[in-house]
User: What shape does this take?
Amino acid sequence: MRIDTHSLEVHQRGDLLQLDADRAVPVAEDSYRWHGELRLWDNEALIGCYRSTDAAVRSKGALYLALHPHGTNAWGRWVGMSYDGLVITGWGAIARTDDEAPKIVQNLIDTGKLIHAPQPS
Assistant: This one.
């Protein structure tokens, strides 16, 4: 088990978000670049999909993230296809700082749910 932290570029147009992510670690360590789309629903959930943008990487899937009431971060699950299997899943988070997202994900791994939603800085 590992927590990958991807640098993420987000472009928002209304309730649609376009995501472009760099590799978390080198290709040799099984990381890939990816693109995703999320739609904001009722100002409380981000629902969408992702796919690898690297050649010969078939990874793709769906995302569901709960949005913090102040919009500072989001957390939830991804489910999809990867080299490791046809249907796999894990926790995920989007945050404004490099160190915040892995802390949110570790909390989800440890407890199975987000106990304390991080407060805005």
